[in-house]
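Students often ask what a 'structure token' actually looks like in practice. Rather than answer in the abstract, let us consider CTLH domain-containing protein, a protein of 694 residues. Its sequence is given first.
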Amino acid sequence: MESTLVNWEALDSLVISFAKSEHLIEDSSALSPPSSPSSSSSYQYRLLIRQIRRSIEAGDVDSAIYLLREHVPVVLDDHRILFRLQKQKFIELLRRGTERDRDAAIQCLRLALAPCALDAYPEAYEEFKHVLLALIFDKDDQSSPVANEWSERRRFDLAGFLSSILRVQLQAYDPIFLLTLRYLICIHKVFCRDRGISSPITDLTERLLFEERDPPAIPRESLLEAPPFDEVDIQALVHAVELTRQGAVDSLRFAKGDLFQAFQNELCRTTLDFSVLDELVHEYCIYRGIAASATMSSSADPASTSSRDCISPISDGEASINNVGSDGVHEINIDHASIRENGSDMHCSSERTTNYEDCSTSTASHLQSCSRRLRRSRYDASWERRRKRWRGRVDPLELSSDISITDKSNQNATPSALDASGHKCKEEKVFRNLSSFHNSSIIVVRKCEIVLEMKELASKGMVAELVEEVNAMDPEFFTLNPMLLFQLKQVEFFELVNNGNIQLALKVACTHLGPLALSNQDLVKPLKETLLILLKPNEDALRKGIPLSALANNLQVAMGRRLGIEEPQLMKIMRATLHTHNEWFKLQMGKDRFEEFLKIDRLKEVNAHFKGDIMTEVHADISVRGFSQSTSSSSNKLSEDNNSPSQASSNESLYDENAIIKIMEFLALPRAEAIHLLIQHNGNAETAIQQMFS
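Now compare that with the structural description of the same chain:
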């Protein structure tokens, strides 16, 4: 799994779109188009759904009904929904236990619940008579016939059901990134469960994705007479989101036969923990340079300023990032006179060093001395503009609860608990801990800055400058990563050939590519292919090389591990889930119908030449390696069978899709087993079915 390739640029696009749609980062980004009015309204609708959901979960049905009347009155025209809301309101009024609330509950019965029960649905009047028993039996009586009506679980079921209805009514679907993440994790869990494999990301997926789903939206009676749906669509939905066949049919009815809308509806029923999700996305955005680090963008106090200035001294001609604007975004001060037009000598000389004796750690000094030529790419102002300030999830629904918690903590504070000396010692200890934490955070951020600078140079194809910078920072890096150096020099070679500088290109080949191939026999063949470019037109040269973006990503991972920067957990999730997605559909012997819709195909789009040269050791991880070995051994075992997936997939095209679906439907078999059965009976579905029942 560690060698699974992911198109991180495609993931960047999905993450940025999600972060903007949820207002987690600044909306004016150069990385993606500005938010459209429709996306803004979708965000407001999602907030509205969340507020209605929380009101019902808290037992405040009146607030939910008020919001529905104000914003989505058409939903209350459906008496099925109105009846369920009024019934829950009746229970909540009784739950409060006061005489006044009991009188209000009886009024609710007379004026709202009873009229609704007459025409909501056939069983509504019986439910109405049943819920009247709540007037007699206590809420704490678990043996009463209405114990389930008193259960607070009813709140969450109603809230989930209403969310499913409103999501479709308002077209307030989650961003594609969330749908993709849900889908990949669900397939990952199914694959690991069915194959008996221990997942290396279980701790993440369990915290991120809740097991329980919201109740499905029920189609109106008028939709029950919808024409028969294509069995291919029904089976696709059944296996994609683990539904029963009847559940898939109902979902298609509610979506009026639209398979992809039904698929979205079912995916959105699985809820995510947004606090965990936001942490994962924030970590990824910092690592990828999408968002500026909070440590570097926070407003400076005297202590933090001196520490930051010590770690990041600014020489003449460098771009200062220590000046923070009023909006929290760094201002860039550039001495343009010191920048040469060719951009080849924009670094400060080795003599321009600063005394680091005041730094809090030796690590900070080492980082500064190793990165003496950094910020070359910062002179491209567009790069800095792409790094946006992380706003976080500003949820207006949580403000009141935050205030109450703060007030409560202030009321519980007891100044007399500590004497003067003890309070002072505690303050000094807290200050030391905060100072240590701050310095540690600065060092981590500084390392990330170094890696991002190197990545930027690689993505621009500035190979000579990049190699010089890396060697100055860590002379052993390319010794440990010879493949990376070879690939970088390949890029330089192709660029020179493309520009007609054949002599310089040959010099690069003699000085770098040749010696690297001499010390590593695996590089001899790539070297020969590289030299063949000399015989071909110039315009073909760059197309033969590894994409700069992929090479930059590879460099970032390698340098990050070298500097002790932990890879974002979101990247681990994507590698693991995309790996199992590939393996799962090999077993299914078919193509994922939703792959393109969820942009999974783009996440897998990696240059074919790059696939052959990727360094698997970059992603080495003991626990992950065990998972990969388990999955690979399972695949190997399958391929040894006579009816292996690879063999069956070639035969699959000989069979009609309807024959496969017919066996799946009649015999309730998974797709792979249905194909194997067809193989045994020469593609005759009727014979296969008769044989099973004979």
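One point worth highlighting: The chain is about 65% helix and 5% strand. Ask yourself how you might have guessed this from the sequence alone, and why that guess would often be unreliable.
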